[in-house]
Design brief:
The chain is of the alpha+beta class. The chain has two domains: about 1-85, Nucleic acid-binding proteins (OB fold (Dihydrolipoamide Acetyltransferase, E2P), Beta Barrel); about 130-255, no CATH class. It contains seven helices and eight strands, in the order βββββαααβββαααα. It has helices spanning about 90-105, 110-125, 130-145, 190-200, 205-210, 215-235, 240-255; strands spanning about 1-15, 20-25, 30-35, 55-65, 70-80, 165-170, 175-180, 185-190. The strands form two sheets. Strands 1-2-3-5-4 form a five-stranded mixed β-barrel. The protein has a three-stranded antiparallel beta sheet with strand order 7-6-8. The radius of gyration is 20 Å and the shape is globular. The model has no long low-confidence stretch (mean pLDDT about 95).
């Protein structure tokens, strides 16, 4: 049995039996870790108030070879994520960010870049940055770090620069290619959306906010990322479906 510790972000907490909870966290050096917190559901649990959504915590745990779940011994709250928990949209966004990490980070594998991306994203959002802009940046970089969404500089099939040819996203292919290489049916990627995707290579949200794209372009980028993500995962994120449906309903009610 090994005793380990790390700083981590709390991604998910589910009840287990009458007294315990299963906690999923993201660490930098060891990727995803899933463990049992014994007695976490009891009234005077030492875990009370520590397992907050997307909070940074310091955890200590025991693990045995061959066991899927570790035994979490201690959780110490380092930094809560209060900025996203004050309204419904923020709660939906936080769930969306967390599910990305659960799906794209690997268990027991170094995840330093995803860890830093999540930490930076939360800092930007809590500082009041535009949620739509930051979330699009986050989506792009999760896919990029996963190696499935390289920056669209040139067509991966023929090498033509997108500065010279139109870019499309074929519905049967999960990458952006040039118009000549993209089979039908396909969706044209606007020059403005392509420009935004390229800007995210070198600009973080504070710099992007100095010249933000219109909402229409952010919706286009969101759709492109969703298509690529679905193609890779072979399913849509549950949190994305809930977020879209809830925000759409809220917008409709606001118009009544």
């Amino acid at each position: 049995m090994r005793r380990l510790s790390a700083e981590a972000f709390v991604l998910d907490v589910v009840d287990l039996h009458d007294r315990d909870r299963i906690v999923t966290v993201l660490t930098s050096e060891l990727g995803l870790k899933r463990g049992v917190t014994r007695g976490a559901r009891t009234k005077y649990s030492r875990f009370a108030g520590q397992l907050q959504p997307l909070a940074m915590v310091h955890i200590r745990w025991f693990e045995k070879d061959g066991r899927d779940l570790v035994r979490i011994e201690e959780v110490e709250l380092v930094r809560p994520c209060r900025g996203l928990m004050d309204d419904l949209e923020g709660i939906l966004v936080s769930s969306y960010l967390a599910e990305h990490m659960v799906q794209f980070a690997q268990e027991n594998e170094e995840s330093e870049r995803l860890f830093r991306l999540l930490g930076s994203t939360l800092s930007w959002l809590e500082s009041g940055a535009d949620r739509d802009l930051v979330t699009r940046y986050f989506e792009i970089w999760v896919l990029r770090l996963g190696g499935i969404f390289p920056a669209p500089i040139a067509c991966p099939s023929c090498g033509c620069s997108f500065a010279d040819v139109s870019a499309v996203l074929p519905r049967a292919v999960d990458e952006i290619v040039c118009e000549s290489c993209g089979p039908s049916p396909r969706d044209l990627i606007s020059p403005a959306a392509l420009s935004f995707l390229l800007r995210t290579r070198t600009q973080a949200p504070p710099a992007l906010a100095a010249d933000p794209p219109p909402a229409k372009i952010l919706r286009e980028v969101e759709g492109v990322c969703a298509r690529v993500r679905r193609g890779f995962l072979q399913q849509e994120l549950r949190s994305y479906e809930v977020m879209r449906a809830t925000l759409k309903l809220g917008a409709e009610l606001a118009r009544v």
